[in-house]
Specification:
Elements lengths: L5 H13 L4 E6 L2 E8 L11 E5 L4 E6 L7 H15 L6 H12 L2 H24 L1 H4 L2 H21 L2
Helix pairs in contact: 2-3, 3-6, 4-6
Length: 160
């Protein structure tokens, strides 16, 4: 998991704008968060992906258009909490962000959300092992993802 420069963040925003990707603002859990809806073709190997380019001061988030519209705000919220509020260096930032989202997601969406998140983290761990330079989780990130998978699977078992 990488921290990015302001230049990288701005370049990503400009690229998304140039491609005319839909830009959305959501008000959720007391936060106002901006994000782009990007085509799944940007990363065909990773279904329902989220792109996060950020540092402690700025961010750009893109979410795959394959994520159902009703789940997009919750995927985006998790990324925002994890990287903008908890911080990239904080231990357990992934699980803590996920816990906040699961606490507020409507019960009608929870099971689908959990299944999609489990699939996303499982696939990204596999891809990171094959292409560590592209996915750049690093040892800490892989451990965070594995811990989060255990948590998500336990939550899904409670919601069956």
């Amino acid at each position: 998991m990488l921290e990015h420069t302001i230049k990288q963040i701005e370049q990503t925003k400009k690229s998304f704008q140039k491609q005319s990707y839909p830009y959305k603002t959501i008000d959720i859990a007391g936060r106002s968060i901006n994000y782009y809806v990007v085509p799944q073709t940007l990363n065909e190997d990773l279904p329902d992906f989220v792109i996060r380019i950020s540092n402690n001061e700025a961010y750009v988030i893109g979410i795959s258009n394959s994520v159902p519209e009703q789940l997009q705000p919750y995927f985006v919220l998790e990324e925002y909490i994890e990287f903008m509020e908890k911080g990239i260096e904080k231990e357990n930032c992934v699980i803590e962000a996920e816990q906040e989202v699961i606490a507020i997601i409507p019960q009608t969406f929870k099971k689908d959300y959990l299944k999609k998140r489990i699939a996303l983290f499982t696939k990204e761990l596999i891809l990171d092992k094959k292409q560590p330079d592209k996915y750049a989780l690093g040892t800490k990130g892989r451990q965070e993802f594995e811990n989060n998978l255990t948590y998500l699977k336990a939550e899904l078992a409670k919601n069956q």
